[in-house]
Amino acid sequence: MQNNPIQRLGDTGVYVLQDLGRMTFFLLKAFRGVFRRPFRVREVIRQVHFIGAGSLTVIICTAATTGMVLGLQGYYSLNKFGAEGWLGSVVSLSLIMELGPVLTALMVTGRAGSAMCAELGIMRISDQIDALDCMAIDPFRYLISPKFLAALFSVPLLTAVFDVVGIFGGYVAGVTLMGVSPGSYIESMQASVTNHDIRLGVIKSFVFGLLVVWICTGRGYFVWEIRGAGFGAESVSRVTTQAVVMSSITVLVFDYLLTAVLL
């Protein structure tokens, strides 16, 4: 046990730099595996089904409740100023630019990202990844690159589903329950949402999908090299928790950065 705080700080800094280096090379190798033959099209489709179709239920439920809450709260706030007709604008812009990409990424992290991290972690501690190396099979092309492609394809589509369902949920809450004019809701939405707003949401969804799959797969792949992870099943559980937390925080940080740069 090191008692010198300066030495502990230095060791922590060295570990962080080493970890960033590992993760950077991991990302480069994952993208290189995308272009290496033979292409694993069937595995990509299987991962799209797992990440995309498998997450559809939780995305729809989250989007519907979020849209309805936005509809109720938006009506309560706008009613104070007699501006209930702009409810569609408030709900649609909030979902398309902010809540849609962020909540979709968080839901995918909790459902699919944790599973990918645990899968790779178990394969690492049971020497299955080392066995692939012994058989001259690139583990990146075989295991990780299909997950990257599937996430980059699935997360933007799930975000679009989230936006549509959320806007409909806001319509139900505002128009059906609170009595807002249907024409005003749709007209304000059409007048306020621009191509720039949609483009910002699409860019966020791509970036968030990349961050989630990168962090979750990377933590699982390097499960033995992560400080404090432990050994065996305990290491997988700790690293999976760390991956979910890191992915969620990174998504929120990059949400602010992308908004500040692109808005």
Write a concise synopsis of the structure shown.
The protein is mostly helical and 263 residues long. It has nine helices and no strands.
Overall description:
The longest helix has 39 residues, at 87-125. The radius of gyration is 22 Å and the shape is elongated. It starts with a helix and ends with a helix. With 263 residues, the protein is mainly α. 83% of the residues lie in helices and 0% in strands. α3 runs parallel beside α6 (139-177), α4 (87-125) runs parallel beside α8 and α4 runs antiparallel to α9 (232-262).
What would you call the shape?
Answer: elongated
Major sheet attributes: none
Radius of gyration: 22 Å
Give the distance, in angstroms, between the N- and C-terminal Cα atoms.
48 Å
Category by helix and strand content = mainly alpha
* Total helical elements: 9
Q: Beta-sheet strand percentage?
A: under 5%
Give the H and E element order: HHHHHHHHH
Mean pLDDT score: 89
Quaternary organization: single chain
Let me know the number of strands: 0
Q: Which residues sit in consecutive blocks of at least 5 with pLDDT less than 50? A: none
